[in-house]
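We modelled the chain as a single entity of 437 amino acids. Its sequence is:
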Amino acid sequence: MEEEAARCFLGRFVEDFPAALEEGSPLPVSPLSRRVSLEELHGESLELGLRLLAARGAPAGLSTLLCQAALSQLLQDDLSPFHCAQEAEANQEDEPQVALLQSDTVQRLFLNKLIDLALAWHQKLPELPPSRVLQCSVHAIKNTRRKMEDKHLALAEFNQLFGIQDGVERAYYGVFDGHGGVDAATYTATHLHVALSQQQTLQSDAAAAFKSAFTRTDDMFRSKAKRERLRSGTTGVAVLIQGQELTVAWLGDSQVILVREGHAVTLMDPHKPDREDEKQRIEDLGGCITFMGCWRVNGTYAVSRAIGDFDQKPYVSGDADCSTVQLLGGEDYVLLACDGFFDAVRPSEVPQLVLDALQQPADPEAGGNTLPELSEDAIGQRVAQQLVAHAKAAGSSDNITVMLVFLRPPKQLLAQHSSSGSAQATQDSTSQDAAQK
């Protein structure tokens, strides 16, 4: 992360927030919840801080360091003055009472710690560790649905956000497709990566860490759903790039594919009710699969695994599947997307669609490839936009979210393809000349 960008941002930020927020004044960003448990405070505070800083154009690396430092200070304080009354919890059967905190007041304290840090860092900027730069292209649309129930998270600075200093670079990405409301998707996007960071097996066995993190997130959401009477669920797919290892974890029918040297590599098999092993698992539990426009679990949900959907647990399982592959150096990108994309686009189509998007001129009316006129970020960002547009044109009516994580720069991918294409054309021409002779 460049120090110049950090200093410029801090200069602007302290102009907007020259002092701590006064008691009773409105918060500059709204908390996700009215009440949170101490365990939920981690994710909700980090989400709140990152949202505030991103809205003001903060460099991502600086944002994660500020939020991590502010949260560390917050958790050292005595938070008992922020506890809510327990009356509502007393009515919950078979659920131990959990101390809940009033979000507005405890998050004001968190934001004031973040502001104090920004003021101090503006005067003397600490040494900033280098950030891992992986370009990420994301686009999401509501499409023809009444509500947008997808959520996503791109976190290239995973270690910095959680203060992990073990020398292993990590980046995290996730796409979550909610149904029956957005609550489960929002909750998972807020807490799954936090739960993952707390797993002792993170470095030695990322797949086991992911499975435990999904289970913990499902359990946490169950408690919230009970106390707030929420009825929703979410599928999800998440990726952790840890050193030269890529681990994928998923529930339901959101998917991820890896493209290596222009070819799609299958990393997973989505959980659908008509998948033979899923059908057998559900029937062994006493459930059934019925066709009602599509295959559904007990005539309800069209996915067989999800976070939430507690009215159909254990038939709709919260147990994630995982796979891990080694990155060999020839990987182009990783694509994560919800079923709104994959219902209209086959994984085998993705490499050509991405290449077409990269090759499209900046000004279609001008013709030709004007790629050099665009920045690397602009080139990458339009790829996700065009993939979403293609899925919509191909007939998808669902919410569509596409996230593309480039493992090599877009310009390099295009140059490599152009070089390969020229070499192939020369080879074809040589073969034709030899045949004519």
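As a brief sanity check on the tokenised model: The radius of gyration is 24 Å. Residues 3-123 form a domain with the Rna Polymerase Sigma Factor; Chain: A fold (CATH 1.10.1740).
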